[in-house]
Amino acid sequence: MKNNNGWKVNIYLWELVKGLGVTIRHMINNLTGRTKRATIRYPDEKREIPLRTRGLHRLLKRPDGGARCVACMMCATACPAECIYIEANEVEPHIEKAPMRFDIDLLRCVFCGYCAEACPCDAIRMDTGVYSLTGYDRKDMVITMDKLLQGKGMEGSRPDDLPPKTLPGVFRAPGAGEHKH
Amino acid sequence: MELSLSNLQIEILLTLVKIPIVLGVIFTIVPIMVWLERRGSAAMQDRVGPVQAHVFGFTLWGFPHLVADAIKFFTKESFLPSRANRFYFTLAPAMVLAPSMLAFAVIPWADDIRLDTWDTGLGYVWSAGKVVLEEGLVIHNSIARLEAGVIYIFAISSLSVLGVILAGWASGSKYPLLGAVRTSSQMLSYELVLGLAALPIFLIYASLEPNQIAQRQGEIIWFLWIIPLPKWGFILQPVGCILFIIAAFAECNRSPFDLPEGEAELVAGYHTEYSGMKFAMFMTAEFVAMITMSALISTLFFGGWQVPYCNTQCLQTFFVKILPADMWQLSIHLTAGLQVGMFCLKTAFFLWLYVWVRWTVPRFRYDQLMHLGWKVLLPIGMANVVVTAIVMAIVYFR
């Protein structure tokens, strides 16, 4: 069992004492408060998450109150986990296509963000900052359109009236793109 | 009112009183060791440790977790693996716990107390006068007094190896068997080193009885002829002390020698298949063995109950000097109390050392462990004995 450490290290006793010194230094620094311990006491304390963290989804609204979503199915198509289910219909009198049902199965969702990237209307975003999703039943973990419309972006996230930066070419200013008849 | 008791009766009475007290103390220290392990290791690793259990909102630094542990152990299902040998499976934890507890019986926590007529001096225990005793009653401050005390400890500790093998084999599954085989061979190897490291102590202090060894560590030797040092074991036998401490770590299966319980290697070694109270007995046995070994280290090498530079005589005369004449009997109790305090301090330090080293050093691989025990420590131990014997012969026959 040869190694290149030399006999002074292989005696191990002095190395042990040095190691004990490291440990006791950590302990004293932690006990006296000179260093802060690394533990985050969830759920009393929570880690600060970056603004781009992809959390629970939310659907954004137009200025007049309806959902921005035009049920183009781009998000459902882009989703790698096939977790978005949309049923579309027209809404009298002027909206050609709007979602009647918009369900996301959160147990299938991998939170990749492709749906938010794919959306041409900035209708779906994942900036709520909610990462802790719980439920007692599988049924409870399918989030429906009404809950999605109630979501709010986290503090400091992009305001609702500004589009996402990823799709500059397809930005429509608020109010633009409403049907002209 | 005068009561006349013979020495034998007094001794039996006192032993009956001592046993529950000592057991109580040991079984209180075990949960405290668990707490120390958890919070101390957390402090060393920059984390907080378990503080969630609370009593009416008071976290109490994590102590309620010990109660939670006790409840958990009592209420867990205690099952028997299908291929296990039922009798030995149930017997094994007891066979590991009993020797660890028994070994503590000869360890002294204070010096002998010499009494003639015992007026307690505290005034309130026997309110109606004195107990008349025979000449020369000596109260031993250990549960038992055996002339071959330390040999008794080594012999009894070896029995726990049997319990480990039994646990591993009777579990009826592979990981425990492997763990038990490793544990038993490790414990056997380091028993040798333990004995050899302690042997020069018996030579130097010319006794096998722990209390006499502790008493004889009260003298002063003159280091380099000018520095006075107490004649403690680690000063006269530094090599032996280090060997003994290393072997004590290996005996208790503590890091860095804890391969038998290494989770990455062996799930949990010989106590894999145990749950509930039986597992609690294994854990308790480990901590009680730690307590016994710490007490033994401090008795053999660090003076045990000795206050440095003050032996029993010196302390008692000091207390007689400062107390008024009608409280002179109190000096005996005060001396004993001080000595108990020193003993507890030293044992506590070594218990802390066990925890400290565990969280400092990575564990040894099994072949490294065996190599260390047989090829490194055993020859050093033997050389130590020879050198000590030669030096003692020279000193004695000069």
Can you offer a commentary on this structure?
The complex is a heterodimer of chains A (181) and B (398). With 181 residues, chain A is an alpha+beta fold. Chain A has helices at 7-10, 13-32, 74-78, 114-118, 145-150, and strands spanning 58-59, 84-91, 95-105, 124-125, 142-143. In chain A, the strands form 2 sheets. Chain A has a 3-stranded antiparallel sheet. A two-stranded antiparallel ribbon of chain A has the order 1-4. The relative contact order of chain A is 0.16. Chain B is mostly helical. Chain B has helices at residues 7-44, 64-75, 86-102, 149-170, 174-205, 210-215, 233-236, 238-251, 263-266, 276-301, 312-322, 330-358, 366-397, and strands at residues 3-4, 113-115, 131-132, 137-139, 220-223, 227-230. In chain B, helix 1 (7-44) packs across helix 10 (276-301), helix 3 packs antiparallel against helix 4 (149-170) and helix 11 crosses helix 12. The relative contact order of chain B is 0.14. Classes of the chains: A alpha+beta (181), B mainly alpha (398).
In short:
With 181 residues, chain A is α+β, with helices and mostly antiparallel strands.
How far the N terminus sits from the C terminus of chain B, by CA atoms, comes to 58 Å
Strand line-up in the sheet with most strands of chain A = 2-3-5
Q: Portion of residues in helices of chain A?
A: 10-25%
Note poorly predicted spans of chain B: 120-128
Number of helices of chain B: 13
**Gyration radius from CA atoms of chain B, angstroms:** 23 Å
Radius of gyration of chain A: 26 Å
Oligomer: heterodimer
